[in-house]
Amino acid sequence: MSNVTLIKGDGIGPEVVNGAIRVLEAAGAAIDWDEQVAGVTAVERGLETLPVVTLDSFRENKICLKGPLTTPVGSGFRSVNVALRKEFDLYANIRPAKSLVPGGRYDNVDLVVIRENTEGLYAGIEHYIDTKRSAAESITIVTQDASRRVIQFAFEYVAQRPKQRLTLVHKANILKYTSGLFLDVGKELASDHPEIEFNDRIIDNMAMQLVLDPQQFDTIVTTNMFGDILSDLCAGLVGGLGMAPAANVGQEMAMFEAVHGSAPDIAGEGVANPTALILAAALLCDQIDQAVVGDRTRAGVERVLLEGQVRTPDLGGMATTDEFCESEERMTRDTVRRFVDEQVMPIIEEAYLEGRFPQELIAGLGELGVLGANLPEEYGCAGMNNVAYGLIMQELERGDSGVRSFASVQGALVMYPIFTFGSEEQKRRWLPVMATGEAIGCFGLTEADFGSNPLGMATRAEPDGDGWVLNGSKMWITNGSMAHVAVVWAKTSDGIRGFLVERGTDGFDTVETHGKHSLRASDTSELVFNDVRLDGDALLPGSGGLKSPLMCLTQARYGIAWRYSKERVQFDRPIAGFQLMQEKLVEMLDRVTLGQLLAYRLGRLKDAGSLKHTQVSLAKRHNVMMAREVASTARWALGANGIHSEYQVMRHMCNLESVFTYEGTHDIHTLIVGQDITGLSAFT
After folding, report:
1. Among 326, 397, 526, 663, which one carries the catalytic annotation?
2. Mind listing the pLDDT tens digit for each residue in 65-87?
3. Which of 109, 142, 475, 483 is the most buried (most CB within 10 A)?
4. Does this model's pTM top 0.85?
């Protein structure tokens, strides 16, 4: 958890900052915000524009996220932005400019302007030269030390970029001493970095070249005023200041902000574009060693803008600030909803009656990115937040529990333990092919006599040389007969450990379960292990104790809380045609909405890293029971039609009987929550 000073700012500041915080939370950021005030908001509270308490907070936390501020009109008020840079010697201003909105004036622009932040014409050394104020002069300060540190910073920054190309911008042909000094330092440092392609440009030529062909440049370093101008020009190349994040970096301190103004004319209307502040927040995550969150945030913004369905008015759309900040989750839900409508619904009833899992759907699920969707992109997964993952489960369940169960087991019960407990080699081998659906997995924990008590499991793994010998069996295993690999939990002399058992291993057999009246469109099997010889690398090295498989079940139960938060039937005919009473519909909607809110809250807690397993138990218990009752009410309202396959209700009711039992029965979750409330265990 990182402590970060938060200044929401003035005008639209609180709107875009709150939106950015929601996006970071959804991306899994672990940040404790220390909220302070500055600017007009501070003055309205009877404080200085930059209160001492705000400075102390920033000094202690060393990191700040700042919304746009308004400097009050009138003498005696200094610019808060300039004051913060000077107070903490934030000498390097970083302004990325990247094409994100298709169809603009330029495509494939990916520039960074690095600007010296503390001196030059902006040093503030100016005065009138006579008492009549008929003329004034400003003094430009350029020093070797300030030039050297910002240019050295630029070289180090460029070394992390793919092109490794640095352009120094100056006006040394006219300003021979000030700009000339900056250029001389740049050339001197370039000799220490032969791996970096270095060149220089005169400011007026640079401005023209950026307009003519911006793609020829990568990173620009320049003095204060030139940087101020060029960074805004580059923002204009990619859509304006609403797309322009900024970082101000010092030796130990860093401040992140959007560079646009506070826009008081649209404040409170909820239509401000939060992109710049979201991208600034992503830069902040890079700074506090949460780069995965930063990458996930940037990828989400890019996906939403590329899709083009949700844009704020300044980008030609009609979306509100809130809608934009939640748009990736909505886009994910709508994409999976279309897949269910077009691919699942036409075939699922037949598959259910035939008692088979529709394997023809697997490739499409892999293409959608829903398998292990909340795992990192570096392993070929989608890297979505947990609310988006929950919405995926909700939409797949609308098709059928068998389809949802396949995706849930693959992601939460197989890919998750490989990611969490596996070696790097195991992750690299299995996660990418499981994300695409090329490889299928199953999860072996439940045994015939030990459903709710996994501590009583009889399956054992005994050491044998540099490997293991596995004996036992597992029951009610989803994906069992078609799995390429099984995550199997067994007792060892060191406690319960997890193993990867591949299909075709001698002594490993699967027996398909027949005669089910529930989850018929799901592959359910028994796994049998007779003296199965496993190599040492079959062990999940990070696993140990009952806690490991229970962590996996918590992942899956979280999905269940979502899956059954929307167990309502989609009617193809006017309601009046079924003589439904409005009271039943209102009651169902009431129950479903409460379940959705509970699942949504769980998702935000999970993304923030503060979710407790007892909260998941509460949600699983509540939402599955709610779903049973809603499905029963829907079947009742449909009368005799409610038992016919055309109306789907009976299929959902039967499937729910399985979910009511597996991954923790209703009664077991009642005892878990009860113990959490009272501190007393009722299990024994």
Report:
1. 663
2. 999 988 776 545 567 888 888 89
3. 483
4. no
